[in-house]
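Quick look at the format.
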Amino acid sequence: MVKAKSVRATTAGSKRLVPLLIWLGLALAIGASAAADTTPCLLVSGVSFVPVILLPQGLQAKVTEHTPVVEIEGLRLVPVRHLAVSNGAQLTWHSETRTMDFRWQGREIELHALSNLTFWREAAIVALTSFRPQTTTTGCVSAVDGDTIKVSSGETVRYIGVDTPETKHPTKPVQYFGPEASAFNTRLVAGRQIALEYDVGRRDRYGRLLAYVHVGDAFVNADLVAGGYAQVLTYPPNVRYQQLFSYLQQQAREAGKGLWGQASSDENTASHPRGKYVGSVHSNIYHRPECKWAARISEANAVWFDSAAEARAAGYRPCRACKPPQ
């Protein structure tokens, strides 16, 4: 009996020890970052995001429902520049070291901007999340269009989470800003070594490989959205960077970049009095008036609906890009 009791005591002690070791590892990793006096930040398409949990408590309290926050694999991140401007902090960027001095209320925080794949391997970040990007390295033979490429293995790779205007669709004409998106993609990846990062689902219904694409420090999917070359298009379960892409799209839209510039400069259907949703006589899809595809429908071909129900009754389905009510 004494022996059995001793075994139970040892087992219970081990169970208590495991979370203690996990906590100790987290504390050491974050402590190492603090000792180096730098806080790792995610740098994507020229925008830096700092993990909320690594901010001083006083700054963490400043992150409210009015602060744009993106969540990636359970880690909440806030745009550094927004945080600085909204809290009266001074921000100085050092391009040679890719660091930022964040001065707030007499305190200086040094932030280190890291590219996506490097960021997730940083010790302090590893301690905070179990996420590890699953990647393979390959060569890009050519860009098919703005969001599709051919790689050395012969595979066709479709970019996850983004959609660029058509340039080579068998039944659709070349769409506005499609050639520009294709050219931009070609400049980034054609003939280059690239890293393919995978999400939950690895292939689409056409058998194409699905991936987030990285070239050096550039995150190609994100750069397409940030430059106004693509819209966010999410197909679950591949939703890892959905909030990040949505934030970058909003910034591009407000700046009138790329395909968003057409909608802001042209007289379009957004203020049209004829209905809430619009389709074309040449398709079976209905859109919100402000959708980029709605802006491409000529007045002669436009079909207007007062409600989503009316559009469905006429045989139309909702646009996957602007997502009107069903």
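Next, a different chain entirely:
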Amino acid sequence: MLCIQAQHNDPYFNLAAEEYLLHRRTEDIFFVWISKPAVITGKHQNTLAEINPGFVYEHDIIVARRLSGGGTVYHDNGNLNFTFVTNEEPGKLIDFKRFALPVMGFLEQLGIKTTLGAKNDILAGGFKISGNAGHVYKNRVLHHGTLLFDSDLRSLRSALSDNTGRYSSRAVQSNRIQVVNIVDFLARPMPIETFSSQLLNYILNRYRGEHYILNPEETEWIGRLAAEKYSVWEWIYGYSPDYRFKHEFYWKNQAVKITFTGQKGIIRDFVMQTALFPEEVCTHMATMFNGCRHTFPYLLKIAQKLKLPGIPIEKIPDFVTSNLF
């Protein structure tokens, strides 16, 4: 087994590296990496429904989509990501327990008693410390997970949305459960870099692996994939399944109802019904929003062009996203 310690903290690059290792290599591989603050959605999710777009935008948190299914996770420099890529026999391609057990064994060595949750999460003290997901390519399996070592849990909770009810679609929805950090269970504190190195060495010894560093040609190939796929709007937002958005609320004691459809991340059939504004204002809003990318920066640009009496510009994108207010 090749064991790789990532040299980058760019989530787009490392997600692309996972795809490269799955598609372009033939060996069994173990890969560990740490990301700058990011929200990573599953392949079959509606990205905007899963995040708190205003918080993510204001705090420069990266939004990305991964190759595997499952729910949305939060990354920062206190979270360690691990990836197994292995060759498997037909009928044995997906086995969450088999890939979780070595990680759980490592945590046991650190004195942390763990269990496997109903959603293939790794739990400590009954709380989630690791989310896991998988993807199959021919006879190769990619299994990856998070390890919340010393993450900013307040930012984690703020970056992820609990308001998916405004969206109706066939998209996979995340299962939100309480999380804790691994560092809280350690007898002696350690930096995440030490934790990462110890996990890598544990896997090296368990599987009689060997250290491997991506060569310049591989790094260049992965960089192109990151630039052309993983960092582009069409993959991050436009790949979301089509959805219906409905938001009913009160503003200045007046009822407001907004509905539209999202098709490949683009707003269509926008309708705003309210006595708050004259009908021509609602029609003008529909003209402005229809055909717009349904993401916070684009909505903010449109909001700056609208003149809605009594409504701050920065509030307008909240009306048409999953933001709470």
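Residues 71 and 174 are 4 Å apart (CA to CA).

See the schema section for token definitions.
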